[in-house]
Structure formats: C-alpha cells, structure tokens
C-alpha cells in the first residue's frame, strides 16, 4: 500500500490532470504502477522523471538509501508496467540501462535534475536508471490499422507477440556475433534482452490462458464440428508452454548466464509459436470477422 503521503500525491495527480503542489510543484512527475514480485498486487508510486530522446527515464534513487526501491524489484520480475503522465495513461516495458548506456543516461538525468547526483553521493550502490518504453503493439505487417472485430484484436495481439519474439532473437543473435561471445569471454545476456523476453513470456501466458479459458470454449459451443481443431490448438499451447517454462527458468537471474541454451530454447519457441499462430489465424479469423470489438456493454433492464 502507498504511504498516506504518497496516496495524497496520487489522488491530487489524478484529480488535477497530473498537476500537484507541495514538494513536487512545477516538477516532472509520473505515476508508476508495478505488480508485486511476490504478492502479484498492483502498487502505484509517484516518481520524478526525465525525458531523453522521446523516452521517459526514472531513477531508483530511494533518496540515496542503501537499497533499491521496491518498485525496481517489482519491475525486474514483471517488466510490463503502467505509466500515467498528465492525462496520458499507457502500458510500458521497463528496461534498466546497463554499462556505458547507464552512465550516459544517468549523466543526462543529473544535468536535468541535479538532485540525483546528491542521492548518488549518499550511497555506494549505482542508482538504477530505467527506460520506460511504450508497450502497445506497433504498426507492422499483418496488424490491422483499426480494431473493430475480435478477428482484428486477435491479429493485433499475434502481431505484437511475433514482433517481441523477433526483437529478442535479434538481440540474442547480435550478442553471439560480438567478438567477446565468439571468444567465449562475453558476460551473460543483458537486461534489455531479459526484460523484453520476460514481458513476451508473461503476455504469451496470459494470452493462451484467455484463449483456453474463454475464447476457445465460446467458439466451440457454436461450432461443435471443429472439435479436432481445438484439440490441436490445445496441444500446441502445451508445447509452447513447455518451451516458455524453459525460457522462464533461464530468466530468473538478472543476467542470463546460459546464453547458448537460451538461444536454443528461443529458436524452438520461434518455430513452434509462429506455426501455431499461423494455423490459429487460418482457422479462427474467418469465424471472428463479424464479432464486434470491443464487445457491447450488457443491457441493464
């Protein structure tokens, strides 16, 4: 739960389109909602932020305390967060910067808000700098420009999943192409790849659980002759879930320390998931093309 002070800031922020008074008056403030790493409960905190080349940066200063703030540990476990800035409200992928990029971004943050330098001087831990990237599906091949039907929505989600998996694979292959990896001296895969893959795995798990629990049974009731189709789709979900479990086990630590095994599981995921999504679209999109999205609100009588 937020402290009473934080809750008062949150309430004022939401009531006044992102404007607050007191110690935050005139500053750049956002609300960050993370999901508890252990509890699974959503938690919102007000944070100062800095803009950099179109991105939003937040710093895990914790007022210069000896430990990282709780919200930072949460986003390491569950990288998809909710961001409120002014009247905007969107999902974002939270990616802590590493190495030279972290140094560059922290230097930029200190130039904009010198207080971060004071906080860093109070503690021996490097203050995390987290980049918040919008998590909405981007325009891409196969994604509908407008989502008007359930078929459009399914295709939008599939396009996002394909895009995220493609980015993770590209980052992984770039790692293996580096001189350090070729010489066997490179460190484990970094946070950029880990966070993106973890977000992909969590979104995929949620998507398949929704299909198994709601979408497939709903369609099957109206098309009982497609029993074999849904048996095949369920079996493919189990295959993908097994690979997803292998990937998740490799993502437990902050740095992926078994890059070659990660690469192999990622290749297996790409093969199985893309074949599954292609088949699912072939058989389901025609059935969902006339179902409005979002669904109409139930009539109150």
From TrEMBL:
Coiled-coil ranges (or none): none
Catalytic reaction list: oxidized coenzyme F420-(gamma-L-Glu)(n) + a quinol + H(+) = reduced coenzyme F420-(gamma-L-Glu)(n) + a quinone
InterPro entries: F420H2_quin_Rdtase, Hemerythrin-like, Split_barrel_FMN-bd
Gene3D superfamilies: Electron Transport, Fmn-binding Protein, Chain A, nmb1532 protein domain like
Stretch forming the signal peptide: none
Annotated Hemerythrin-like domain residues: 150-288
Stored CDD domains: Hr-like
Assigned protein family: Belongs to the F420H(2)-dependent quinone reductase family.
NCBIfam families: hi_GC_TIGR00026
Protein name stated in the entry: Nitroreductase/quinone reductase family protein
Organism: Streptomyces ardesiacus
